[in-house]
């Protein structure tokens, strides 16, 4: 079986001096290698091809047969690494909390593993008869949510 750490080392070598970052690597028991990369401006197919070729040039098919798939982290898929949070500041996201509650709002800020989502909520304001719609900040920690993902809008 192909060692995931060997593949990770190759990907990290290719990433040097590039603005891409590694999201995930999986190696199945039958040697299907899946590499996910991302970039603040999106992933170009030519770069996926270049990374794929780089990996293939450094792995020996004579020694071990494998299937290789290189692509971008899927849009609308849960974030897997901290850098993805930074890329989506100011964008709509959905958070599934540890207790199973879905929260939708705008990713306002990220600091370390903590992030804040501004959620539009009706809030009772003193002196007003009816609740007023306001943005309320909800703080979270990446380690304490089930997932966070970008909300795709077709409006």
- Count of DSSP H/I helices: 3
Characterize the largest beta sheet: strand count, sense, and whether it forms a barrel.
5 strands, antiparallel
Oligomeric assembly? single chain
Order of helices and strands: HEEHEHEEEEE
What class would the helix/strand composition place it in?
Answer: alpha+beta
**Count of DSSP strands:** 8
Percent in strands: 35-45%
* Helix content, binned percent: 10-25%
The radius of gyration is: 20 Å
Termini Cα gap: 46 Å
Rounded mean pLDDT score: 93
- Residue windows where pLDDT falls under 50 for at least 5 positions: none
Q: Enumerate the strands of the largest sheet in spatial order, edge to edge or round the barrel.
A: 7-6-5-4-8
Shape summary: elongated
């Amino acid at each position: 079986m192909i060692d995931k750490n060997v593949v990770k080392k190759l990907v990290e070598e290719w990433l040097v001096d590039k603005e891409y970052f590694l999201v995930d690597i999986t190696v199945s028991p039958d040697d299907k290698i899946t590499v996910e990369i991302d970039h603040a401006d999106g992933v170009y197919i030519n770069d996926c091809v270049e990374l794929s070729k780089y990996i293939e040039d450094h792995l020996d098919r004579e020694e071990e047969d494998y299937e290789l798939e290189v692509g971008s982290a899927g849009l609308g898929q849960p974030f897997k690494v901290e850098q993805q949070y930074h890329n989506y500041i100011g964008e709509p996201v959905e958070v599934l909390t540890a207790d199973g509650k879905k929260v939708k709002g705008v990713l306002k800020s990220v600091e370390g593993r903590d992030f804040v989502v501004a959620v539009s909520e009706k809030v009772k304001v003193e002196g007003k008869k009816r609740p007023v719609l306001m943005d309320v900040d909800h703080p979270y920690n990446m380690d304490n949510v089930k997932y966070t993902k970008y909300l795709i809008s077709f409006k």
